[in-house]
Amino acid sequence: MKERFYNAVIFTFMIMLFLTSAVYANSSWHWVTTSPMTVLPFAIIFTLFIETASVVRFGRVVNTRRVLKVVGLANVISFIAPYLERAYRFRPVAGELSLLAAFNKGPYYMILSGYLFLTIAVELPIVYYLLSKETANKKKLIGAIISSNIITTLLVAICERMICIGRW
After folding, report:
1. How far lies 117's CA from each of 26, 90, 123, 135, 136, in Å?
2. How many domains does the chain have?
3. What residues make up the domain containing 50?
4. Is 24 domain-assigned?
5. Which residues are within 8 A (CB) of 61 and not within 5 positions of it... i.e. 6 or more apart?
6. 20-62 pLDDT per residue, tens
7. Verdict on whether the full-model pTM lies above 0.85
8. Do residues 148 and 51 lie in contact, with contact meaning Cβ atoms separated by under 8 Å?
9. Residue 97, strand partner residues
């Protein structure tokens, strides 16, 4: 079981490293209403609630507190993952300050289709590995994790587009 988890993590990072496309367009995008970062706390609460409820109800995991902690950890890691990948790409120009530059040059947070893939690729192995022993049906757990991530990502993206208006 641990070998599968490690293989999934290695596969995820290999995809992040080798299937990237760097764009140096010096984008002129600016937010007209509010930045998605101001809406982020509400999105976090909403996402944690939906994903925890889905894993408890459909993944049939009884320990709600453990599910909340695991889902919270997975969400933090999936939120930080793009910054770490960006810091890796900043290494040639920022050197030792690449991690700091990755977090300060932004806003980098915006829900796109790639974010959905990244979320599933990062959260699925973490949540599955840490909760698979606490469910009777592991396939339902996988289905609950994937479907809840798809639903929450789509709903947050729709809300983000309605609340946060930007222009080029």
Report:
1. 25, 22, 10, 25, 27
2. 1
3. 2-15+29-167
4. no
5. 55, 67, 131, 134, 135, 141
6. 655 544 455 666 787 777 888 888 899 999 999 999 999 999 9
7. no
8. yes
9. none
Torsion of CA 139, 143, 145, 146, to 10 degrees: 130
- Picking from 106, 138, 105, 145, the residue whose alpha carbon sits closest to that of residue 122 is 145
**Distance from C-alpha of 134 to C-alpha of 79, rounded to nearest angstrom:** 25
The reply to whether 94 falls in a domain is: yes
Kindly report, residue by residue over 76-107, the tens digit of the pLDDT.
Answer: 998 888 777 777 777 777 777 777 766 666 54
Could you give the residue ranges of the DSSP H alpha helices within 19-112?
36-57, 64-94, 98-104
- Assess if residue 120 is contained within a domain: yes
pLDDT score of 107: 47
Which residue, chain included where needed, has tokens 């396939």?
A: 139
Would you say residue 23 lies in a domain?
Answer: no
